[in-house]
Design a protein that fits this description.
The complex is a heterodimer. By secondary structure, chain A is mainly α. Chain A is built from 14 helices and no strands. Chain A has one domain: ABC transporter involved in vitamin B12 uptake, BtuC. Chain A is globular, with a radius of gyration of 20 Å. Chain A starts with a helix and ends with a helix. In chain B, helix 3 runs antiparallel to helix 4, helix 3 packs across helix 8 and helix 9 crosses helix 10. Classes of the chains: A mainly alpha, B mainly alpha. At the A-B interface, helix 6 and helix 14 of A face helix 4, helix 5 and helix 11 of B. Chain B: Belongs to the binding-protein-dependent transport system permease family. FecCD subfamily.
Chain lengths: 316, 313
């Protein structure tokens, strides 16, 4: 048994232990209802973890860096803008006009559309530059935020309350109606993604090597960008944006598993992400008694870690 | 466009800005103005117009210094985390010394901004040869980290419901007596003019500057002090305005080239003009309400930046 397999088994054991603790800690006497709610929560956290882990690792392989994640591309801003525009158009009739399911799938379509436009914009020319793609994504993100803020400024206060639920989602307010739809999208993406690990290993060597070794580089990058867009859509729609989660979990994974093989990295990162969120959520519920928002904790720790990484690494 | 024409345009628009507002005051009736009209002009309209001009000049010049010192056209207070650092400083002042005034907020904001600028310069210096695009990407993320720290403490002290729209640049609150801190921009513009060439040399790197006999650390310090003071002063009085320091120097460089001594006055005047036009638009679009300047500039500036990026390919 290789050392890496042992580590994965260890992580799995830790994860199962945490799940058990989370599900059973301080259950009331008539436990069935609480238990059911908690199971849903754990399930949703698991899905978000897989989506974040896969999209972050693949994104870092494509862009050859260990500190950027898809959050910087502006996908989340697209989601927020879309939500704002819907409420702006329909006001308090929003829920009767558009169901949660329709909203979810439309959000995914919009994010995929956004990925497609970015892709077309940058890769039109031969000398495409992924960093340029990132910068444009970042600028668009700021732009979308500004437009959203402007619409929120002139929105009726009652309508704004409807919006607020979607803007500051957390693991305490998971959109349970969406769990099954999200699962379908997630499984679909993973079904395609699982066949691609070999290509990712080679793409990780760099564009020149990948092309020399016969990988259809352009097609593969495009496919993965769409997968990433769909997965970011899933996690954002379920729990809202957490910017520095990806940086934190991917780098912890690289530290633990010094390998480039994606069939090890990706499952490991899913586990690390699951443990991180579940642990943080457990602390939020029982130590801080819901006084603090989990995304704030994760962003705070992840952000500090990010600065440390920047100052530590000589070559980014 | 000659500088002279730009100055005339600036003057005309500034006068116009004095007469745009809820209470209509006509310039033709100057002889029949009541004391109330005079009061509105001197207490509210004139300070506002001055604040607009100084903000435009200050932030544009800051962007220019930063771009020279990092030798990167895409660096600015927005793309180096400077704005977010100023916010964190102001939050610190509100938490620690809520009873003190604007000057103490300025000191806090200045300290945090200065530290953040030093860290960012260190990072930028390390990866300067990697890619011109990579530095602003990192800078924006660096700003995101500072923002997450701000949010964390804001939640702890339960003082900020929503840091998203917090401190968005807004001129509507400017009145005589609460905005004077912003005049710090004026001496800084003069210092920048005197040091313009030295900032460029500093941008070439430490060993290069020392070979030319330049006091590298001294000049760097002066540059960072200028940037931190201006950004903090404007953040305390007006709020934050995204992209302003990024696009003005870039547009000026496209129009007039890169001779800093020559283009510095243009940068200042065009910056002031741009903010003035945005402010006038913001006041008229949803009249009698206002669109905050931070949003107006954010929208227009973001679009201009995108065009610059796509053209640069």
């Amino acid at each position: 048994m290789s050392i890496q397999l042992k580590k994965i088994i260890l992580l799995t054991v830790v994860m199962l232990g945490l799940c058990a603790l989370f599900l059973t800690y301080g259950l009331p006497t008539n436990w069935a209802y609480s238990f059911e709610r908690r199971s849903y929560k754990v399930f949703a956290i698991g899905m978000v973890s897989c989506a974040v882990a896969y999209s972050s690792i693949v994104f870092q392989t494509l862009t050859h860096n260990r500190i950027l994640t898809p959050s910087v591309m502006g996908f989340e801003a697209v989601y927020l803008l879309f939500q704002t525009v819907i409420v702006f158009m329909y006001g308090d009739k929003t829920f009767s006009v558009i169901s949660a399911k329709e909203n979810f799938f439309l959000s995914i379509v919009f994010m995929l559309g956004f990925a497609f436009i970015l892709f077309k914009l940058i890769f039109k020319k031969e000398n495409h530059n992924l960093y340029l793609l990132l910068l444009i994504g970042l600028v668009l993100e700021t732009l979308f935020h500004t437009i959203s803020s402007f619409l929120q400024l002139i929105l009726d206060p009652n309508d704004f309350l409807i919006l607020q639920g979607t803007l500051y989602a957390s693991f305490n307010a998971i959109n349970y109606d969406l769990i099954w739809y999200a699962l379908v999208v997630l499984l679909g993406c993973f079904g395609i993604g699982l066949t691609q690990f070999r290509y990712l290993d080679v793409i990780g060597l760099g564009k020149a090597h990948a092309v020399n070794l016969g990988v259809p580089y352009f097609k593969k990058v495009r496919l993965h960008l769409f997968l990433i867009a769909a997965l970011v859509a899933v996690s954002t729609a379920l729990v809202g944006p957490i910017i520095f989660l990806g940086v934190l979990v991917t780098n912890l994974t690289y530290e633990m598993f010094k390998t480039y093989k994606h069939h090890i990295l990706i499952p490991a990162c899913c586990l690390v992400c699951f443990i991180s969120i579940l642990g943080a959520q457990f602390l939020v519920e029982h130590l801080f008694s819901f006084n603090i928002v989990i995304s704030v904790i994760i962003n705070f720790i992840g952000g500090l870690y990010f600065i440390y990484l920047l100052l530590k690494t000589r070559t980014l | 466009m000659r500088l002279f024409l730009l100055l005339i345009a600036l003057f005309v628009l500034s006068v116009l800005s004095l007469f745009v507002g809820i209470k209509s005051i006509s310039i033709v009736d100057i002889l029949h103005w009541t004391s109330e009209d005079w009061m509105i002009l001197t207490l509210s309209r004139l300070p506002r117009t001055l604040a607009v001009l100084l903000t435009g000049i200050g932030i544009s010049i800051c962007g220019l210094i930063m771009q020279q010192m990092t030798q990167n056209k895409f660096v600015s207070p927005t793309t180096a985390g400077t704005l977010e650092a100023a916010k964190l400083g102001i939050l610190g002042a509100i938490v620690c010394i809520p009873q003190y005034g604007a000057l103490y907020k300025l000191i806090f904001a200045f300290l945090v901004t200065f530290i953040a600028s030093v860290i960012f310069l260190k990072i930028a210096d390390r990866i300067r040869h990697k890619s011109i695009i990579f530095i602003p990407v990192l800078g924006l993320l660096f700003g995101g980290v500072i923002k997450s720290i701000t949010t964390f403490f804001a939640f702890q002290f339960n003082i900020v419901q929503d840091t998203e729209t917090w401190l968005i640049g807004d001129f509507s609150g400017v009145l005589q007596g609460n905005y004077e801190v912003i005049f710090i921009c004026l001496p800084i513009v003069i210092i920048t003019y005197l040091y313009a060439n030295k900032f460029t040399v500093v941008g070439m790197g430490e060993s290069f500057s020392k070979n030319l006999g330049l006091d590298y650390r001294g000049v760097l310090l002066i540059g960072l002090l200028c940037i931190s003071l201006t950004v903090s002063a404007i953040a305390v009085t007006i709020g934050t305005i995204p992209f302003l320091g990024l696009i003005i120097p870039n547009v000026v460089s496209l129009l007039y080239g890169d001779n800093l001594r020559k283009t510095l006055p243009y940068t200042a005047v065009i910056g002031a003009l741009f903010v003035l036009v945005c402010d006038l638009l913001g006041r008229l679009i949803i009249y009698p309400f206002e669109v905050p300047i931070g949003m107006m500039v954010g929208l227009i500036g973001g679009l201009v930046f995108l065009i610059l990026l796509i053209r640069k390919r």
